[in-house]
Amino acid sequence: MKKLLFIFMLFISGNTFSQNFKITYLKSSNGKLLENQEAVLVFANTNQTLLSTETIRNQKARFPFEETTVDRKTNSFYQTATLNISEVIATKDSVSLSKQTFDYLNDTKKILGYHCKKAKAIVNSNTIEFWYTTDLKVKGSPTVLGQNLGLVLEMVRNGNFVIAATKVEKIKSFPTVQSPKKIVDGLTYKDLLWKSRFTTIPVFKDQIINFSDEYKSNDSILRFANGTIAVRKIKFPEIKVGSQIFVDVTEQSNGDAYDRTGSFFMIPTDKEISFLNGLQDGAKTLPIYTNGNGKEYQGVIASDNYNPVVELMRFFTPFGVKQYNTLQLKDKIWAENVLYRQDVSDLRSLLSDKEVWLGINIGNYDKGGHKVSANITIHTEEETKVKPTQIIPLFCTNNIMEMAGQEYGTMFNNDKGLEVTFKLNQPMKNCKLRYITTGHGGWENGDEFVPKKNSIYLDGKETFSFTPWRQDCGSYRLSNPASGNFSNGLSSSDYSRSNWCPGTVTNPIFIDLGDLEAGTHTIQIKIPQGLPEGGSFSSWNVSGVLIGE
């Protein structure tokens, strides 16, 4: 690589006595110029071509930015990426240009006074037309594609997207490109460039979530509930309004063969009591909710001095992925792990410029348990019409502390169901309830396998109802090697369920609540929970936060 770097530096700094040209291009779609676009610039002479942009050449480009230099003598090109103020990388491609193929057509036309011919190529199911000239005795194109045709003055993709030259100028000298600090292979180059476009916040790496008396915390990660919960404090940068925020969790079995409820969550600490108190001092220290059915539910609804956890993502483990891949079936190639990834941009204001407690839980009673990794990525958007929002945590009946005695969400066997009262100090507009719901009770008549209507009431009036149900569970069979097989030809993981499948994320739904006046309001959730049978019972994990302007 050192030799290649030396050759590259000689190439980009070499003098040439041939005529130099600068070509400016603009993009249009459906006949209209794109708004607020930066011009594409191509510099060309007989020895080399440089693809750049106006902001890069004016030293006003945002990181990362990329330029491409074509070496006409070797028919190869270098891609150079400036990732940040101190890191520049490059890669060389010696084969792609020679592999490009085109259909040469008889059409001709003049562009900017130059006689142009036409060629066509099909790339990834896209039809791309090129109008190129040989009048100037140089080669170039506004993209890597078409570099050897001549000087491409217009590209048309699928008949509606156009990159067209607006100006061809003679210039005295050929511009230089910043020297890279290292030359890397093409795949590494793409990966480093891609990752530099967003911020990655690692939260957990190969974290074991299991049930054992031998679980241990360390300086950065605290573990609770016999090892089934891990939490840590994370500092977030300021996140611009409109930015995209994603969470991703990767999971594989480390011993547990069953489908389990998982949650990647945040612990609000803005009130006197938090869920962290319950983790440290026991579920009994959390505020109690009762509805007349004789049970006490710890830490499930907001109160004057407590906010429940906010679930960033509810996920479900498959049956034994990775650990049980030795259970072979004909024509089945099992997945090595499961990746769960979800957009949580709606929760920006809970994270931006704050230090928060994040946790992950998988309810299980297995000593090996599960192995998980979790990250949050932030993708900045430069232009957005999104308005800033306020977020109020309201309820979460997912008993994340199940293995430390937190009660299951069985309050829906009473007509009152779940009821939470909250107060707004000022009006909120365009309010939405971010609502996650899954039904559980894993036997034939349990609510896991029986559709049940969820009804949401605002201030005593039903505002929305639906029946949460997933019918696509069979799509994830290859993540479920330990799923039991039945005499009817189905496997357990194939069966439809109450809004979840083994190996999937359960997405929140957003329920419009309109504009809410200042004062006290009540939200109530009613579900016709099924009756227990023997030692089996049904429960519902529901969580909700209020989002408004």
Radius of gyration: 30 Å
**What is the percentage of strand-forming residues?**
35-45%
Q: Total number of helical segments?
A: 6
Query: How many strands in all?
Result: 33
The pLDDT mean sits at: 95
**Pairing-aware structural class of the strands and helices?**
mainly beta
Describe the global form: elongated
Assembly annotation? single chain
Poorly predicted runs of 5 or more residues: none
Distance between the termini: 54 Å
Percent helix, as a range, is: under 10%
The major beta sheet can be summarized as:
13 strands, mixed
Structural commentary:
This protein is mainly beta and 549 residues long. Helix content is 7%, strand content 42%. It has 6 helices and 33 strands. The chain has helices spanning 2-13, 54-57, 96-99, 186-195, 275-281, 348-351, and strands at residues 20-29, 32-33, 40-44, 48-53, 65-71, 76-82, 88-93, 103-111, 114-123, 126-133, 151-157, 161-171, 182-183, 199-209, 222-224, 229-235, 244-253, 261-267, 288-289, 297-298, 310-316, 338-343, 355-362, 370-379, 390-396, 418-424, 428-440, 454-458, 461-466, 505-506, 509-516, 519-526, 539-548. The model has no long low-confidence stretch (mean pLDDT 95).
